[in-house]
Amino acid sequence: MKITEEQFENHLLGILGELGYSYENGYEIAPETERAERKDYREVVLVGRLREKLVQFNPNIPPGAIEDAIEQITRPNFPVLIQNNREFHRQLRDGVKVVFQEGDETKADFVRLFDFENVDANEFLAVNQFSIRGPKSTKRPDIIIFINGLPIAVLELKNPTDINTTIYDSYKQLQT
Asked: pTM for this one?
């Protein structure tokens, strides 16, 4: 039986749904739509979802410090991708360090991005057809997995019945 890539994608989205993932179509939450979840196609973080979870997970952190944490996540500090990836991994694992005023006292704390103790408190979201504008072109991966509004995984699917398509084709597509 021959299946199309779209059928394969829909089947995988169904499996993710059975595992508890919510689903959104990238076209429906794209910029300039009624349900837009980002300002333009260069943004990859679903900031509204992220903000909601950061407030929920960090009730003792003031709103200004939550916004600082979001700024740190969405505006990388380093000129080299590998350094940014290492810093983001540390933030995912340990939280984002913020400094804020509480009365006359300056305090430092970490904003947790995930609830590791109560996994069900996190939001798991699968989005297909999510367009991203890069410096050279616009790309649209098949499925992106978001946790609490943060893009965590990109799934590039190929028709499993196409004997001319190899895993290397997916690899090349992910490299762009």
From this structure: 0.88
Q: What does the pLDDT look like over 105-163, one tens digit per residue?
A: 999 999 999 999 999 999 999 999 999 998 888 989 999 999 999 999 999 887 666 66
Q: Does residue 156 form part of some domain?
A: yes
The structure tokens 């380093």 sit at: 78
Question: What contacts 21, CB < 8 A, 6 or more positions away?
Answer: 124, 125, 126, 145
- Secondary structure (3-state) at 115: coil
Angstrom distance (rounded) from CA 116 to CA 53: 13
Q: What residue type is assigned to position 125 of the chain?
A: L
Range of the domain at 88: 59-111
Domain with residue 151: its CATH number is 3.90.1570.50
Q: Position of tokens 């003031």?
A: 62
Q: What separation, in Å, do the N-terminal and C-terminal C-alpha atoms of the chain show?
A: 31
